[in-house]
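Progress report, Aim 2. The chain analyzed during this reporting quarter is listed below.
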Amino acid sequence: MRTLKITVIFLLFFSSIIKAQSNLSRNISLNIEQQKLGSVLAMIEERGGFRFSYNSNILPVDSLISIHENNLNIAETLDKILNHRFEYRQSGNFVIIRYAPLELVLLVNESVGNPEHYTITGQVVDKQTNKPIQDASIYERNLLVSEISDGNGYFLMRLKNITQPISLTVSKENYKSTVTHFLAEVNITNRKAEPSERFLSGNLGDVEKTWLGNTLVTAQQKIQSINIGGFISKAPFQFSLIPGLNSHGSLSGQVVNKFSLNVIGAYSAGVDGGEIGFIFNINKSNVQYFQFAGAFNLVGGNVRGTQIAGFFNDVIGDVRAAQIALAYNRVGKSFEGFQLGGIYNKVKQDFRGMQVSLGLNDIGKNFNGFQIGTLNLIPKKQEGLQVGLAGNIVNGKSRGMQIAGIANLNKESNGLNIAGLGNYTANTASGLQTGTFNYAKNLKGVQLGVFNISNQNDGYSIGLINVALKGYHKFSVGTNESTTYSFTYKGGSKRLYNILMFGMNKKSAEKIYTGGLGFGKEMKLFSSVSLNPEISCQFVYQGSWDYVNLLSKFELPINIRLNKWLAIQGGPSVNVYHTKQNTKIGDFGLLQEKHRDFTFKDLRYTGWLGWNVGLVVL
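Predicted structure tokens for the chain:
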């Protein structure tokens, strides 16, 4: 009898300490008129110095609340504003709000035994209707033993090796949980106090909603998760054959293990050390340090450390780890670390680190790091190095380097884009585009390619054909000292434009044809006068393609605008001509015989001073 009194006093004293320290026991005052419930809860969080966790689909956060109370504790305040239809559990710095409008009662039929073997039988019924409750969870949190009530609400629980007073918790979805204490004749031993419950991130039933989770997790484990999802315990070890046959029974989904060895596969609350599954691992919440599966890992929370799977890794939360799978990796939130997938990698939010795949890399938001794959997709922002064997697609801003075998596509580019075929920037390109074909709506950087196209050109285009739809493009017809007729197109920007040029001289015995490329820059002198230094190189055809004849020019024409559409130009030039052709063919001439103002030691070179005049269409 004395032992019983001491035990009761100990329990009451311990309970009073816990209550005094509980966030729910803190007193607050509220004077609120017609404010949204979500705002009121945020106010209570701020004053209480903790965070609420609740299902926003069940809690009416947009409903209007009025409360005028002074010096009520937080639990009483919540009861008033939530009409006693919810229950509250403290877990660390979180207060979990659980929908529980109903109440249940545990009717104990028999409670007998000793510390080695103790048996409890009873029935779970509805407090209001007295009807039996099926599929209620009855568990002893210290011993990690649980049962589920049958169709008539009955249960039988056997307990072994009891070293603490028995606390039997009964939970059922939509019912307030109840705890019943059994004071067996036991020798109470001192042990390190560890919280048996803690808050776990994410929606704890998410893995069970997946196809694999729904198929492999047993019905009893699902019931336990629904009824007592907020109760999470810790254990040093778990051994499992399949999810339904393991050392924790149907309570395995509520236990975080230091180490778990799973012959085929297992279902647990999480891992805080290491886990090896020869086929698969399924975890309701977080995994930390190391996880290996021969086929797949399915995690409902976050992963920290190393995760390896023979086929795939599927994580609903964040990953800060080295993640390796021969087929694919899929991450529901953000990723930071190293990710290797044989077929594809999918990260729904931000990515920081290195990502490698033989197929597709798909990032949901922003990318910062190194990425290599056949195709890389990023919808918002890319920073770092991106290598796509086929292409890279950034539906936002690209900063850093993009290398693609076929094409780079982005909305904004502020870095280096290298592509075998082409680069396409839907808005502004401020860096370097290099490829066979380059397009930028607004060019503020450099384009280097065969075909360069922009809508507006405020940068530099270097290539065979440069077109700026709203930029610099001029056509000119003229003559010079070598060709009677010359035709040029100038496109790009005033800073640097590209020149396509063709010329011919039809006079008998002096006939030649020329064609080539050049670059120029417009320097404004007055409102209608500009100086255009230009440099070019042309191939000269003198009756045979067997000879390579090259004419290099430096010209300094002055442009005088006559009106909005026309201008005249003219100026001097310096010419250097290289040729190995010393024999005239038919009525074609030899350009080196026509001009020779200065010579070089190498007789293949000739130079002269020249001129050009023409009419320019603006």
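The two ends are 110 Å apart (CA to CA). Helices lie at 2-21, 37-48, 74-82, 206-209, 211-216, 219-228, 591-594. These observations will guide the mutagenesis work planned for the next reporting period.
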